[in-house]
Amino acid sequence: MEYRRLGRSGLMVSPLVLGTMNFGNPTSREESFRMIDRAIETGINLVDSADVYAEGESERILGEALARNGKRKDIFITSKVFMSTGPGPNDAGNSKHHILESCEASLKRLRTDYIDIYFLHRTDFDIPQEESLGALDLLVRQGKVRYIGSSTHPAWRIVEALWISDRHHYPKLTCEQPPYNLLDRRIENEIIPMCRVYDLGLITWSPLAQGVLAGRYQDPFNLPDGSRGTLKPVYAERITQRGIEVSLKLEERAKGKGYTVAQLSVAWVLTQTGVTGAIIGPRTLGQLEDLLPSADIKLDESDFRFCDKLVPPGTNVSNHFNTSLWMK
Question: What's the average model confidence in pLDDT over 246-266?
């Protein structure tokens, strides 16, 4: 495994990041344990989680897995805060109250004393960033969080956060985590250049465009039973006819090179300028095994030209920012 520097943190992380969103629902505990062990065995040293995945069960599974295999010191754990974790009016957002409460709950579920990278899961336009960063500063000083990051934030909010941290001597964001795949390339316009200028790591989510770039969908109006697209309208919106057409053309290219379309899709993300890593979220050990070779695939200029014709740089044929109304 060739490790990459995660921006200003200086941490060396694997380009493939194990995502845990499926752990606990639909993936069973035992299958999740097998995937965690296998990922660590292959050199993956960054595991991504969040307080809301499977209503906290994902973090519990990850914590139990690391207690069983004794590998906590060998990997970096992330978690996130912002989404609603309860019925109360203060059970969501980036207030100091919610950040501190959610971090304590995540630590207990993860069975650990610290979270390596703690992300603001979305930006909160109702809370001054001074308050959010002040809460994260407290967690860092308490030793409960080591690094902080942002997920799916506008570039200008990240720059504002860096300026506030400078002014108040708070810890600075070290990483942004946006959606990025061949079907939605809009982070190339502002977010990637911003990360390069300010030396931020870039860990992207949904490299397979929610399974479209794994060939799992043939018709946006007839989704397979049990697929993510059937779970929530926000997921179904990301599956478009144009996206499926791109996937089919990319699949032909992949077969000609001896890869699966999923492998080529992840490899394309990993070879983009400024990208540190990509979060893969397999449901099964078999899916994990299929994606592992992606980190070793080398694309040539003809591959990049082919992909640019399918979806030009900076454009999109599917909206993976549809949980963030600031992206138009």
Answer: 98
Answer yes or no: is 119 within a domain: yes
Cα end-to-end span (Å), the chain:
37
Question: How many structural domains is the chain composed of?
Answer: 1
Residue that is written with structure tokens 């990459």 in the block: 4
Asked whether the predicted pLDDT for residue 328 surpasses 80, the reply is no
Using CA atoms, how far apart are residues 227 and 95, in angstroms rounded to an integer?
A: 34
Contact 237, 322 (CB under 8 A): yes
This prediction has a pTM of: 0.96
**CATH code: domain of residue 96:** 3.20.20.100
pLDDT tens by residue, 29-51: 999 999 999 999 999 999 999 99
Residue 247, CB half-sphere, CA atoms under 13 Å: how many? 29
Show which residues are catalytic. Answer: 53
Containing structural domain, residue 57: 4-177
Q: What is the band of 325 on the pLDDT scale with cuts at 50, 70, 90?
A: confident
